[in-house]
Amino acid sequence: MSRFFILLGGELVRTPRIDAQLEGSRIIAADAGIGHAAMLGVTPELWVGDFDSVPENLPESYAAIPRETFPAEKDNTDGELAIAAALKRGATSLVLAGAFGGPRADHAFLHLALALRLAEQGTPTVLTSGAQEGHPLLPGTTDFDYADGMLFSVLGFSELSGLTEQGAKWPLDNVEVAFGSSLTLSNEVRGSLRITLERGRALLLAHPYPLPEH
User: Fold this and answer.
1) What ranges make up the beta strands (E) of 43-132?
2) Which residues of the chain form CATH 2.60.120.320?
3) Residues 204, 163: contact at Cβ < 8 Å?
4) Among 10, 131, 142, 204, whose Cα sits 20 to 30 Å from the Cα of 211?
């Protein structure tokens, strides 16, 4: 098994869950995502992108990181290119760090959709900002290790059939959820969270740590 930790350009805070996900992972930075490396105390094995948004005042040692450089006018985002590089190197699972927030809402949406596609293709993928985590929900049953009282939502990317939420303040039992419904927003863990989905595309958005104050 080979887990790759992809540094993206969105917001990222260091938490114990981030440290656990980093342990044993190989690391690739996507363009501005290199700015998170010093905060995490890591040096990526590869730095990918068009390098049009590189942060200032990076450690001099980062100049030695191998790079794959692409033109600014291209068909893929820097994040997609970093993911492709990880898959080429044998990634069997991915953590997309810095996948939420940042200046580009379109990139954040892409990361959500891309995580679903990767999971459907057989590559388990987690999205994280440190404070928030996203987990694609495939048909079947998934157990989560989140603490009692944690806020979570299920985001539907289609109509959902046979959705069951156990271990929740507001449990659901084999319900149908229309696309665009708010039924599955803002729930809380009560005990051990287990989610079952029979059909549809969805993502669990969890809040394991309070969002930092700005």
Assistant:
1) 46-49, 67-69, 93-97, 125-128
2) 137-207
3) no
4) 142
Please state the pTM of the whole predicted model.
Answer: 0.90
Strand partners, 194: 143, 166
The DSSP string of 101-119 is -SS-HHHHHHHHHHHHHHH
Could you please state the CATH topology (level 3) that the domain comprising 137-207 is classified under: Jelly Rolls (2.60.120)
Architecture of the domain whose range is 3-130: 3-Layer(aba) Sandwich (3.40)
Percent share of the chain, pLDDT over 90: 75
pLDDT at 44 over 90: yes
Beta strand 26-30 with 46-49 is: parallel
Q: Write out the residue limits of the CATH 3.40.50.10240 domain(s) in the chain.
A: 3-130
Give dist(CA 153, CA 60) in Å, integer: 41
Residues 6+ apart with CB under 8 A from 100: 10, 11, 108, 111, 127, 128, 129, 132, 134
CA distances from 29 to 33, 65, 66, 67, 204 (A): 5, 10, 11, 10, 25
